[in-house]
Amino acid sequence: MDLILWRHAEAFELHEGKSDMERALTAKGERQAHRMADWLNQRIAHSTRILVSPAARCQQTAKALGKKFKTLPELAPDGNGEALLKAARWPDASEPVLVIGHQPTLGLVAAYLLTDTPQPWTIKKGAVWWIRGRNREDAAQVILQAVQAPDLL
Description:
The chain is an alpha/beta fold. The chain has helices spanning 27-41, 56-63, 81-88, 105-115; strands at 2-7, 49-52, 70-71, 97-101, 128-136, 139-148.
């Protein structure tokens, strides 16, 4: 199965009187989201299931793809890696899954899948980590398929 972790693009800082869930993308963030969406749209399968945090910045990032997506409350900023992996049905999903979410959850999930230990890895704003799980010779393998940052596109 392919699990694609996409951190939301650059968002405005939290301002007094606003909630973290309302933070929107900056103009730079909108450009990052569109560049990464173009890159992803050239590579993801049509069957890819897209799961998105309800936070405004993630919703805006997802809309850049121009595809249908499902909003899941468990992917909100206060979510955890276990809930993310359960929602994605890792490692048993029959289709690729793209998750648009937040730090530190995405970094913890990437570290856990690649090292078997949750570590505080940082995924850059707007970046994608593409992780593939497969079975070879009756052994489970996890492969880092790609890492792409929007400023390199």
